[in-house]
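Researcher: Structure for this, please.
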Amino acid sequence: MQEMVSKICNHASQHWQGDSWYRAIPLTERIVLKQKNTDNHSSHTLGDNDRAKQRFQRWKEQPPFDKDDYFARRLAMDSLTEDDLLTLLDEPIEVMQAHNIPPPTWLIELLTAFTDQNTAADFTLPLSTTGQGTHTMAFLNTLKPLLRSGLSRLQAGIQELTQKYAPLPFDPQTIVSLLFAHIPVLVLPKLNKTIVLELNVARVQGRLQGETPEERFQCFLQQLGQHENMLSLLEEYPVLARQLVETLDRWIICELELLERLCAD
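Model: Predicted structure, token format:
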């Protein structure tokens, strides 16, 4: 694990050192980390943090938590109290980063994919353009490093099935395209709004070149096509980054389980 982290640091130290990624850690994981790191926990006491208290109050005022004891009951579902929540909201994100040794698995996967020196620029997604909108392919292309990494893991799993079962009840090449056809439905609903928002931000800031909306759109996609730029965007939206990685992880696990059972049958 330490060797892998060191390798990533060499290629993406700027992103690796960023504490923004740790904003993607949910409350349930944060409280566990605090309990495991008693020294760090004891070193940080609840201060007079108005911002934390304002955030706490906004959470509490959202329907239906603004009625009866719904808020406390919801927190209890995750074994949290209101004091726990206020303490977590008050804790600086760099303290949370210090709790995470080693770093989260999803973050290692993400940075490994985007800093892999073997990532081919001409890699083509195994997805038929027939029936696919222009935006579908364009948005997916911004995630090529991550999708390529996922496909490599899927193909490795299929290769293991090849060694375990002979002959396979499916063609290894054809099945990859068939399974990958599910990716747009899984990924795009999570990605679309962020891409559209950032497109408008770039337009307002005058960072787009082109005489027509289509030319400016292509300019924006070219910018995101550079791995450094897309990684910076994901660092700005760490929850999105984590969701994308974990969605692909679940996809790989489910598809390989499906193929395993098909082979066993």
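Researcher: Any notable elements?
Model: Residues 40-44 have pLDDT under 50 and may be disordered. The chain is about 70% helix and 0% strand.
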